[in-house]
Amino acid sequence: CNRGWNHDYQRAFFIVDEPLALSEKRPNLQWLLLAVVVGVAAFFRLYELGESAFRADTILLWNMALRKVPPGLVFAKWFEVSGAAGQMPMPAYIMQQFLELTDWNITPFMVRLPFAFFGIFAVPVAFLAGRRLLGTTFGLFLSLLLAVNSFHIAVSREAYFYSMSFFGYFLYFWAAIRWVDKIWNREALSWGRSEERRVGKECRSRWSP
Q1: What are phi and psi of 193, to 5 degrees?
Q2: 193 CB neighbour count, 10 Å cutoff
Q3: Could you please report the per-residue DSSP string of the chain?
Q4: Between helices 162-207 and 5-12, what is the axis angle to 10°?
Q5: Considering just the CA atoms, what is the radius of gyration of the chain in Å?
Q6: b (16+ CB within 10 A) / e for 40-53
Q7: Which of 25, 31, 32, 47 has the most crowded Cβ, counting Cβ within 10 A?
Q8: DSSP letters of 135-182?
Q9: From CA 207, how far away is CA 204, in angstroms rounded?
Q10: What is the CA 184 to chain-centroid distance, rounded?
Q11: Model pTM greater than 0.90?
Q12: Contact 112/50 with Cβ under 8 angstroms?
């Protein structure tokens, strides 16, 4: 019987963490590269953030910021303070909470800043999800792809819910991969142990006098 069978099935079902070339050989390099990618993402989302005009539904949030609506009223009396029956209160709440905590002058840049932050935060989350799925190199590629994605850059510069949604999508993606990986390893480990016991019995019965 093969004494290394136990290790073989562990490797086959990813129970033993195999070394990732980039993260194992140079453990700090992946974080340095990720910092560069996040820096690129921040530049594209923050550069001249307050220069463009508000349009369409984003005008609603600009108007609420100028009126300094208390964050507590955003949920308690949303229809009264917004006058928009078809809009969601969460973006306005986050904006008002951010403006209240910082207590800086209300400018187009400051109104858009929390939404740009969500767009930036989505990049490292995409890295974590990609690394969990296919390794460090793929995680860096996925985060870079998101960092320079023109559509994601555009929606991250809007005072609206789009950047929050993308952040939530990638956060869910990461959590789903972790959950599936955990369930898969648990089932594989259970199957592997039962197979190990079965092979052990066959070995004993074959070689016992």
Answers
A1: -65, -40
A2: 12
A3: --TTHHHHHHHHTT-SPPPPHHHHHSTTHHHHHHHHHHHHHHHHHHTTTTTSPP-TTHHHHHHHHHHT--HHHHHHTHHHHH--TTS-HHHHHHHHHHHHHH-----HHHHHHHHHHHHHHHHHHHHHHHHHHH-HHHHHHHHHHHHT-HHHHHHHTSSSSHHHHHHHHHHHHHHHHHHHHHHHHHHHHHHHHHHHHHHHHHHHHHH--
A4: 160
A5: 25
A6: ebbebbbeebeeee
A7: 31
A8: -HHHHHHHHHHHHT-HHHHHHHTSSSSHHHHHHHHHHHHHHHHHHHHH
A9: 5
A10: 22
A11: no
A12: yes
Pick from 82, 80, 79: which is nearest to 61 by CA? 82
What CA–CA distance (Å, rounded) separates 5 from 176? 30
- Which of 50, 66, 75, 84 has its CA nearest to residue 158? 50
Q: Which of these, 86, 89, 102, lies nearest to 61 by C-alpha position?
A: 89
pLDDT for the residue 18: 43
Of residues 166, 150, 163, 159, the one with CA closest to residue 50: 159
Phi, psi of 86 (to 5 degrees): -100, 10
